[in-house]
Fold each of these.
Amino acid sequence: MKFAVQLVAAAAVLACAQGAFAQQGQTVKMVRIDAQTGLLGPVGVNQLKSYQFFAEKFSGAGNPAGVKFEVTGIDNKLSPTESLNALKAAIDGGARYILQGNGSSVALALSDAVTKHNERNPGKEVLYLNDSAVDPDLTNSKCSYWHFRFDADTSMKMEAMSSFMETQKDIKKVYILGQNYSHGVQVAKFAKETLGRKRPDIQIVGEDLHPLAQVRDFAPYIAKIKASGADTVITGNWGSDLSLLVKAANEGGYTGKFFTYYTGVTGTPSALGTNGTGRVYQIAYNHYNMGGQMDKWMTEFKAKYNDDFYTGSIIRIYQTLGAAMAKAKSTDPVKVAAALEGIKVSSFNGEVEMRKTDHQLQQPLYMTVWQKADKKYPYSPENTGMTLAPLKEYPNYVSSTPTSCQMKRPS
């Protein structure tokens, strides 16, 4: 009897030991569904390369779970319909982790589709990891248990941006320009709300929304901005819609300030060139001169791809996934989702937390300004000789915004 008890105990210990490392050596298949072609394709191409670059860094001994990350991409042409087809193809191909970021309209469609898939297919659940889509609805009225956002949402960034603008007493008249989809609409909404609260003396002298990734000449918009008398423009534009906008501003002689979300993204540094010094600002969760290990990674990425790394949320996805899989002792999306809720990890700029209430990562934000690269801030995107230099860091609690999410968790 004693021997039998010892056998059972030994078996239990062995089972626990095997469970602790059940995921070690497993390959985690991840598919990124995003634009690879068209005007906004260069951004998606850069980010897919970024995922694959860091998959090597964070695989095996690079994560506490000991798993290998494998990332492939599907071109969704920035279309929600194409994205849903891509989602089905990814799931049919065995992927349990879906990655996406460019276009909140796509993100909302994917979040809904993933939620419905998981409800209808118990045992075949997938997780949706959002690196860049920032519509606040994704973690508020349309939140999903199966969606986790690693970027800071539009309202969080505007909270920090408006805190900085509050101190800039030369800002008197603001023009809001954005892309005509959920993100652009939300930028305008929160810009008016936060400035009204912090700087009620500022006049909103104009507001425009334009078609996403269709405008090739922004000269008419610059003419309207100049005619309005605006000394500052707020825009959530990204990709070609921002690079072509600043190009038109340079050519049209507009000398006001630009407050942006995505100055550092593919194409915009080259469009700015040496123009806009001290006038173009970016609010983001990282920047080109973070220092330490990030500098080494960025230098290596540029040497390998002749391109710039800027989507720091990709690093956080690997860090939190590795930690969650180690905690869950599994790569099963159901167990990993539970482990991700409330998880805290040390990242490239301090501790970040995946808020359990709504699956929105809580993280520091930075206000940076376009200026000449120097010894203190040497990184030069797209070899422009310029850089985004940090002006102000906003800790997690400053940009954290409340949520209305009523999370429906699986039983």
Note: The radius of gyration is 22 Å.
Amino acid sequence: MNRSVSRKSGILFGILAISLWVLVSSAMAGEMITADGYAAITGGNTVIARDKAVDDALRKAVEQAVGTMVSSDTMTESYKVIHDKILARTSGYVEKYKILSEGPERDLYRVRVQAEIGKADLTSDLSALGLLHVMVEKPKVMVIIDEKIGGLYGTTGSESVGQAESTIIERLLSSGFNVVDADTVRANISRDKALRILEGDNKAAAAEGLKYGAQIVITGKAFSKNAGGGIRGTNMQSIQATLQARVVRTDTGKVIASKSAQAAQAHIDEMQGGALAIKEASEQLSGELIDMIVKQWSGEVYGRSQEITVMISGLVSYRHLAAVKKILEKETQGVKAVHQRSFTGGIAELALDYGGKSTNIADELANRKFTGFRLEPTNVTPHRIDIKAIVGK
């Protein structure tokens, strides 16, 4: 009996190991791209022309890989940067290649290659150039942090100087993020809503973020306090700060990152020391949050399946919904699965496993011809599409 259990366990472990290897290999695998390269044949020297044609084909393969990540507008606007920083070092991204066909064509030498482009390094370099923000349609970020600088043992009054918010916003801006003006948010958001957001109401954070066109809200609390009197008989005091923050996606209300940081400062003044300690903790935490956000975006931009919610209103028949699902499941490239969450009162909620941008889905449905109705997108965010079914038009 023990031998049988052991043998079954061994088989199960083997299956799990193979499955894990397949998943890891798939995640790390490069993209296979076919491209043609050309070079002029000078003085009848086909050897040199062939080498140049191979280089041209590999460069075009890398350019195609970049094109799958970056919009055509971005390619046009940032072509010189992409050319100088990315396309100039083609060999750094081509993991392997094979020649499918080659030969002279009049005064040119033509080579067709199939190249495997490693996206890990390409992703990293494009992100370093600040193009990742463009790839995910320049998302806007809203920051709202509750901050308190406390007195000795927390017994004296506390004041807020906005150090955490300003530090995080400064780091976001320097990293290329588009940030909602903090003064505008503070002037317009009600105290009740602000408290709900700061106390961890992710739906409230998402709702407020959407009002300001933000795709992401960073919210949390910062607090500094005197650690306990003077340092070694001097007037210098040890001030400790703690900052907790989370990143909420506004179109889904989901938390995509959560971190905390601590820092300490020695200072003669509690308020100035507290502000400095909070600044240090904010710098540390904002760097980690940015890395987590970029990692999340990178996975979404570079081919990994993500969930997109599609809300369709105005449906007069379940058959209309069935027609939309069929188009998404059978005829829309990149859609891996369609999950129907609900259909009530002419309103349907679908969840798509999709490896691409939500705008592509919106464009596809808006331009499709359905029998007896058409679809009109009314709101499109990176992870949610609201659509109205219009009958008889």
Note: The first strand starts at residue 31 and ends at 40.
Amino acid sequence: MKHIPRKRFGQNFLTDQGIIESIVDAINPKPGQPLVEIGPGLMALTQPLVDRTGEVTVIELDRDLAVRLRTKPQLRVIESDVLKVNFANVAQELAVPKLRVVGNLPYNISTPILFHLLGFVDVVQDQHFMLQKEVIDRMVADAGNSDYGRLSVMLQWRYAMENVLFVPPESFDPPPRVNSAVVRMVPREQPAQLNPKLLEELVQVAFSQRRKILRNTLGKWLEEKGFSGTFDVQRRAEEVPVAEYEALAASLS
């Protein structure tokens, strides 16, 4: 029976074989590697991953799809909302130090998923995700670019990232109304030592009024925190490089 894509789950199923092969090549899975796929759907990506690794752990929220997936012996199915999955526990259950995480993420909740995974970065070897191209542009943007923002800073603090593949709408059924792309995210071995919650708060304040100079937003916040160091607040938030936000958060931590 054909599965009808569900709008509330943000389901757009990948159907282009050439694109699927390109994504699998970019992931480059090896036999026995602990692969975790978020949102396997109709197994377009799952099956070629299984063919290369032998076994894949999949996280699926849609009950009908989870039932279908459980009939495949090479799959370990976690039927859950990915935002409730403890990836440290998954690594422990698989008896591995690090996971390789992949997926065609639902575009309506892609940012919350990225922030959720940020909390488990210590048990992740790498991540390959298909996302809305616009989101990936923001993830990899440098300071001074109009796409540069909160997402850029929070993710670049912990990951080296690159846009590895463009995916047009016609690669899906039903086609989304946006262009997609695939991003590779590799956790940094020696990230700046800081309080993540503080960095998140700092960046949120800085970009709360991105067109204004920081004196009006971050400057006031720094005064409240009793900051006595030097930081140029005569700039806009998008002009400050990631390293400077990191250094500021580290000095406050």
Note: The longest strand covers residues 124-132.
Amino acid sequence: MSQTLFDKIWHSHTVREEKPQAPAIVYIDLHLIHEVSSPQAFEKLDSLNLKVHRPDRCLATLDHAVPTLPTDASGQLNYVSREAEKQVEALRHNCRKFDITLHDWDSPQRGIVHVIGPELGATQPGLTVVCGDSHTSTHGAFGALAFGIGTTEVAHVLATQCLLQRKPRSMRIEVNGALNPYTSAKDVSLYIIGQIGVDGATGHVIEYCGSTIRSMDMESRMTLCNMSIECGAKAGMIAPDETTFKYLKGRPLVPEGEAWTTKLASWKQLYSDPDAHFDSSISINANRIKPTISWGTNPGMVIPVGANIPHDDSSGSLYKALNYMGLTAGKPLHGQIVDVVFIGSCTNARITDLRAAANLMRNKKVAVGTRVMIVPGSETIKKQAEDEGLDRVFIEAGAQWRNPGCSMCVAMNGDIAAPGEFVVSTSNRNFEGRQGPGARTLLASPLTAAICAITGVVTDPSAYMEGTHV
């Protein structure tokens, strides 16, 4: 019987299913852990006198609550609160207690959980991957079934290495054609969410396919899958191919020699059969996608950067969003003053993202009155960027070069925008208050964000790059 990529992984990991359509017990291959969603889960284990069933299947890091500023003169870390520091201390204690690998402050590979998993080679095709974080969908770029879970479920996986899950429906999103100049995977993801809405894929696992997807590098594929949750999907996936295998080969947790050959052979079977059934399908012409930016208070409220803010509203949410954002329907977003630019997060803090921003900002200056934060996704990326001199480009332009962490994406670590400030951000969510109480977030690609940093206003990359920007 023909199967989708999702079907193949689901069925191979189903431990028990009482009957069709009933929730199934699903085995989890990789459990990623960070300091914010795990303390209560470990407390639950303690209260029941349980151990972690497979500590070797767990991988932990510090990322959400950690400060990104350097240590102070006394060598102390600048935690935003004692609560944040206690979360870090709790994870360190629990990882020692249960023998879980933790990428602590002294690890040269510490970083955002959805960045270091792929970097280490822990994320591999065909795996089931979970984390107490909604953007676990990032790992689906490798042909894995990866999704976020709640704290109670974190405890279940720690104790049993399994989850009770109802099988989602499947959706195919096919994107074909060459992308327009100055357009990236972030623009593709924002365009898709704008087309289908923030609930357009609710209850589904998306498989992205088509010539546009196949031409993307792994960093771009991770950006696309990362944003899947923003249109309501359980997960996003891309079938592994030679691009995937080349990225993985030689990484620390990827097997070598004969074991690599065996793995590779199995990974090459991970694709949707030509006549596999999807519950829904969408086709998109890549040529229609332009550099895109959000204007409202969810990731589906998007427009081409040079377009006008919409004025038609059937849901009643448009004017509420406009009121919060202080914008006017029918007017351009182009030219709006930008107070803060944030380039970072599990969506866009990889080396290719930093290169794109640095190439634009080289030999230029940040606009007067605009604060710019560049936050690499991991210590590995930070070192690579510094080896390439990207940090000097940013610093000389007038931007802040920070230490790895989730930073302003979630604003729970001291990296925050002031009420009323407009933030052009490469992160994944623009909800009210996401980057600080009263802060107003405009989601964009690293290239668009870098241009806005230089001009100090929302700027269309096409007009800027082609010299027609006024």
Note: The chain has a mean pLDDT of 96.
